[in-house]
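Record minuted for everyone:
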Amino acid sequence: VRFTNCAWHVGLTKDLLRHIREQGVPENRAAIIHTYADFSGVPPADRAAFNTPADAPVALALARLHEKKGLDTLLDATAKVPGLYVWIAGDGPLEAELKAHCTRLGLDDRVRFLGWRNDRGALLAASTFVAFPSRYEPFGTVTVDAWAASRPLVAADAVGPAAYVVDAVNGLLIPKNNVDALAEAMRRVMTEPGL
């Protein structure tokens, strides 16, 4: 019904555009307009405000605290990467569960739950790289945010990131739910200059 009530249709990804066209929308009535971001000139957030050493590697996760976002995988992987700090910017239904998991893993000294934020650019500028472990992601604006901020990206191969991230070219693409692969990719970003 929604496809018959509109004269024009816009999809954010190749897959969404394909879906729109499969619903009978003519090619000349549907197009892609990608999400974009511009963080040029945004000063970095103050790491001291998040009790994070100035020289520590920081992985930034921009996500709802939801099962689909794979943040439990990120915490499990962080436990395998000594010295890595993690900032999780977002809120959601799993906040208490994720914080308890963080405590069980002994990560309270290196993981910061920042809550909902409106300063993505400043957080990106202060981070070392972006961790994007989503299990389900039709597109993932976080991919565009990382690229716009010139930050390395470690992304799970959910549909959206897998359609745009070329492994070892414009990010590191790892299998969903794979703690060891995520830990290894984060280690690589921390230890391989110029990756």
User: Anything to note?
Assistant: Residues 179-191 form the longest helix (13 residues). The first strand starts at residue 9 and ends at 11.
